[in-house]
Each structure stands twice: as structure tokens, then as C-alpha cells.
Write a structure and sequence with these properties.
Helix content: 40-55%
CATH superfamily of the largest domain: Type I PLP-dependent aspartate aminotransferase-like (Major domain)
CATH class of the largest domain: Alpha Beta
Number of domains: 2
Strand content: 5-15%
Number of helices: 15
Largest sheet: 7 strands, mixed
Number of strands: 13
CATH topology of the largest domain: Aspartate Aminotransferase, domain 2
Order of helices and strands: HEHHEHEHEEEHEHEHHEEHHHHEHEEH
Strand order of the largest sheet: 2-10-9-8-7-3-4
Distance between the termini: 50 Å
Length: 395
């Protein structure tokens, strides 16, 4: 059965983790793995999460299945958190999924049922897992212009020109905020313009919002997805709680669909649940219940939002300090974009050869395309990293 198999392509990020672990240098810096780290280099458990988890353990009375849609209270709370009052709730349906990745896969399976073999247009660049995930569901993939590697900003005019050529048979995947891997986001005015173009072309929109609250705040980060939801007859949203709640291990995500009307939403949701049944049957409940408890408890929610603000401000501080450090070393504004961008990642724009050199000579680990995890850089290591980056940038 297995004798003709060849090894699967190596996941570069997983390989990078192993390389970093094997490096014995004391000043090594991990900017590759996509998890938030605090000033001490730890990925902490939020106090609001710990309190909700304690409440959950004490009050839980059963371990029976929660159903294919998962934790209904969690789903309702996530719809409110992401969409607010942008769309009538009778047009929205949501299903808990194993992480944001699971939510994306559910929606991808649904879209392949609706439009077999349809093309999903992804930003250039995009999160590496978008392509294999969509193609595994049977969909085709293509790209649209997004990031200008030289100017380090969004190629918005080119992006709009590409979207204008799409049709109602196509799917447009948009990053809701904190674009991964670039950190370059659309402005509110650009979201407004893009929404009108999408409305005119009829292209179906899927929003991947994995970093809500990591950019400029919960309300500001939700502007784009809410603008689209308030305007379009149909769309889908994949949300994750890995980052903003720090629930990486619990795999907590939510797949949302918006129908043209209540009946359309009901029928579409039945197909979404059918996809869930075929994939994993029932989702895990523990992490979802933690989120539900927090979002429905005024005290815990306020505590969580305060902690989320601290997380966001920590990353902004690193961005600003690093940009200033590079300004001093380069005598230019070449790295000012780091302070302007938002979220956990930035694309530095150095070559793969320079990425390899900074790893070999300075113990700085990042993905080959020069995507760095901002949160992986402790404030105490900014000068060390800036020296290394400045040195390899001269080559």
C-alpha cells in the first residue's frame, strides 16, 4: 500500500523550529514561529482565560457531544464580536471549528459544493497554508496583486484592477486585518472602495480574520469585514481565537456564512454542517466554552480586552523601537514601514540569501521570504537584531 509513497514536502516553518531548538547560541532569536511572545519570551495564558477555564472545570457536568455546529453560545458570541450590528442576524449562521484553519477548510468544502472547481483568488503574498488548504478542498487558486516589496505598501490600484476582472463564479479571499505575512493593511477608505467594486462584480468574498484585536483594536480591526457584511448579499468569514485569546492549543475557530435571506442561510448552513460531519463530525468544546464565558461575562470581558490591549501595545512598541533603531543604523527611512504596519508579522524585504546569512552568522531565525514575527523579538534584543539586520542589508 505505502511502498510507492515519497516523502511529503518539508514544512519550512516546522523545519525552522527544529533548527532553532538545535542551535546552542545564547543570543539566538526566533522570529519564525507565528505565536505571540511577551517581554520575557513566554507565550502567556491570559488571566481572563485562566479564570474562565477554572469556572468551566468547576461547573461542567457532562462530556457528551456538543453537536456538529459546536458550542452555540460561542457561535453567537463570535458573530457579535466579529460582525457587530453590520448584518441582520437571521441571515447569519455560524459553526464552531477546530481553529481558524478548520473554519477555512469547512468554508472551502462548502464553496466547492456550491461551485465545484471554482477559482479562489489569494493575495500576493498570502499565508502559505491558504493554497494547499483551498486546493485540498477541490478549488483552484490564483493570485491578485497586493504587496509592493520595494515600496513596502499595498498595491491598491493594481489590486482593484484585478478584482474588477473577477466574476460571480470566482472567490476572493481577503485578510480581515493584520495581513499575514506583510503586516500591510487596507485603510478604511480603501475598504470602502473595494467593497463597492466587489458589489459591482458579484465576486464571492471569504474573509480570513485570524488576528482581530492585534492591529488597532477590536472595533478598528473589524471595519473591513463589517463593511462588506453590511453591503454584500452573501459572504463567508473564518475567525480564529488562537491569537487574541491565546488559545493556540485548544484550536478554537468559527466559520460564518451570510445568506441573501434567512432561507438561503438555512440551506447553506445545512451544507456547511454536512462538511463538518465528513471532516471531524463534532468539534472540541473546551476552548470554545472558555471564549463563550469571557465574552458573556462583563468583568471577564473587560479584563480580556485590557490584556489584549497590552498585547497589541507591546507589538506596537517593538515596531516603533525597531524602526528607530534601523533609522539610526541606516541613516534612512528604509525600515520606517515596520512602525507603520500592524499585527504580528512584517515582511522585511531582504533576500533569501540574506535570511540564510543572518541565521548562520547571528542566530536570527525567520522564514525564507523574510517574514518576521514582531512578537518574537524581545525589547531587550532589538539592538542585537538591528545590528545584524543592518549588517546583512549592506551585502
Amino acid at each position: 500500500m505505502f511502498e510507492k509513497l515519497s516523502p511529503a514536502p518539508e514544512d519550512k516553518i516546522i523545519a525552522l523550529i527544529a533548527e532553532f531548538a538545535a542551535d546552542n547560541r545564547e543570543n539566538k532569536i526566533d522570529l519564525g514561529v507565528g505565536v505571540y511572545k511577551d517581554a520575557t519570551g513566554n507565550t502567556p495564558i491570559m488571566t481572563a482565560v485562566a479564570k474562565a477555564e477554572d469556572k468551566r472545570v468547576k461547573e461542567q457536568t457532562t462530556k457528551t457531544y456538543v453537536g456538529m455546529a459546536g458550542n452555540i453560545g460561542f457561535n453567537d458570541a463570535m458573530v457579535d464580536l466579529v460582525l457587530g450590528d453590520a448584518v441582520s442576524k437571521d441571515r447569519v449562521r455560524a459553526a464552531q471549528a477546530p481553529g481558524g484553519t478548520g473554519a477555512l477548510r469547512l468554508i472551502a468544502d462548502l464553496l466547492d459544493i456550491a461551485k465545484p472547481g471554482a477559482t479562489v483568488y489569494l493575495s500576493d503574498p498570502t499565508w502559505p497554508n491558504h493554497v494547499p488548504l483551498m486546493e485540498a478542498a477541490g478549488l483552484k487558486t490564483a493570485s491578485y496583486p497586493y504587496f509592493d516589496a520595494d515600496k513596502r505598501n499595498v498595491r491598491f490600484d493594481e489590486m482593484c484592477d484585478a478584482v474588477k476582472k473577477m466574476t460571480s463564479d470566482d472567490i476572493l479571499l481577503l485578510h480581515g486585518c493584520c495581513h499575514n505575512p506583510t503586516g500591510a493593511n487596507l485603510t478604511n477608505d480603501q475598504w470602502d472602495t473595494l467593497t463597492e467594486i466587489v458589489k459591482e462584480t458579484g465576486v464571492f468574498v471569504l474573509v480570513d480574520i485570524a488576528y482581530l484585536g492585534f492591529g488597532d483594536g477590536l472595533e478598528d480591526d473589524a471595519y473591513g469585514v463589517r463593511k462588506l457584511a453590511a453591503t454584500l448579499p452573501e459572504m463567508a468569514v473564518a475567525a480564529s481565537c488562537s491569537k487574541n485569546f491565546g488559545l493556540y492549543r485548544e484550536r478554537v475557530g468559527c466559520a460564518m456564512i451570510i445568506g441573501a435571506n434567512e432561507e438561503s442561510a438555512k440551506v447553506t448552513f445545512s451544507q456547511l454542517l454536512s462538511a463538518a460531519r465528513a471532516n471531524y463530525s463534532m468539534p472540541p468544546d473546551h476552548g470554545a466554552e472558555i471564549v463563550r464565558i469571557i465574552l458573556n461575562d462583563k468583568t471577564l470581558r473587560a479584563e480580556w480586552e485590557a490584556e489584549l490591549t497590552q498585547v497589541r501595545n507591546h507589538m506596537v512598541t517593538i515596531r516603533e523601537n525597531l524602526a528607530e533603531a534601523m533609522r539610526k543604523r541606516s541613516n534612512s527611512a528604509d525600515y520606517d514601514f515596520i512602525a507603520e504596519h500592524r499585527g504580528m508579522f512584517s515582511l522585511l524585504g531582504i533576500t533569501p540569501e540574506q535570511v540564510a546569512k543572518i541565521k548562520k552568522d547571528y542566530g536570527v531565525y525567520m522564514v525564507g521570504n523574510s517574514r518576521m514575527n514582531i512578537a518574537g523579538l524581545g525589547v531587550d534584543k532589538i539592538d542585537i537584531f538591528a545590528d545584524a539586520l543592518a549588517e546583512v542589508s549592506r551585502d
